Amino acid sequence: MFSTEFRSGAMTIRSRRLTVAEEAIADLRSRLRTTRWPAATVDEGWTLGFDIDYLREIVAYWADEFDFAGFQERLNARPNYVVNVDGLELHVEIHAPQRPSADSKTLLLLHGWPDGVQRFERLTPLLDEHTLVIPSYPGYGFSQKPTSPLSCGDFGVLMARLMDILGYRHYFVHGGDVGAPVADAVTRAAPDAVLGLHLTDLVYLLKVDPMPLPPAALEYLARGEEWEWSDGPYRHVQHSRPQMLAPGLSDSPAGLAAWILEKFRAWSDCGGDLESRFDRDTLLTNLSIYWFTESIGSSFWVYWATDDGQPSGRIDTPTWFSLFPEDLVRPTKVFADYFFNVAHWKEMPRGGHFAAMEEPELLADELRSMLSSAAPLQPHADIEHRQL
User: Fold this and answer.
1) Measured between alpha carbons, how far is residue 113 from residues 13, 122, 156 in Å?
2) Overall domain count for the chain
């Protein structure tokens, strides 16, 4: 449903413009206006999973008030590029500083699910003295869909290859949600290139073998097991039966909205009021990207392809942790120490799972602390010190 326009760029990079066909917008509006609502509902608000009255509001707004022209302008205000990485065309935002200095660093920002590169829209202006590389994973958003499911480890190898292709010899990595195991994998794939690793969660470690862990570390696994039973069923379905969900969510925008927006409400520091943390147009921008790129089904594949647990071996790269209070399951330091070389550990005062969207200033301060911890790098003849 998206069309793209390319023009030649430096090296292997091509700039990218995103447009939505009018017939695709008309089709979405028609589907929204003809939503077949449940024949009978009970007035339980969010108790049964989603407040149907609120969903009706969202569907009506998306159909009749959402500015689709403004949506496209919003996307194209970002520095969008496409890079071929081992045969896959990956969408990448590359934010280069206007006046790079010896203190400018390069930071690879890795998104999660159910979001994408737009997770970092509010964060990027706060780190404009640095080069920021923000890719969409294969099968997410504007990136090409792989021919078979890829794991978080596969994503990590591809992201390391991306950075090498772009000419970045040393860089830092940040990730949360799916981005956390991908950042882990990047660090393992390119240990000499990654100067520092920053994580906001460790949900992907909930299934590690508890036997070698010190007793104090088991608290995290116990809390994780409780979360798996209460809030983790979505993950089990996406992990074990991804193609069961794909047809319905690809056909019904109302269903897509319910599946995704419930996660934003449940996982954020919103106190039950979703729009106290995310404005409606931001929520619908995220939904519209999934809808028009037809990527909700392929976004599930990584759950199917990824085995729970930690790859063998401890990460020696200095690792920064910023833990937001309303995130899914916050790890303990004694647990993290077993797997990482913990250089920084901070319990944040507020915020949830979508830290870059909820508390961009707090997260920017944490990332800036990591970036400033390394000695200044001498400028070299690669892309991080050029205008694109």
Assistant:
1) 26, 17, 15
2) 1
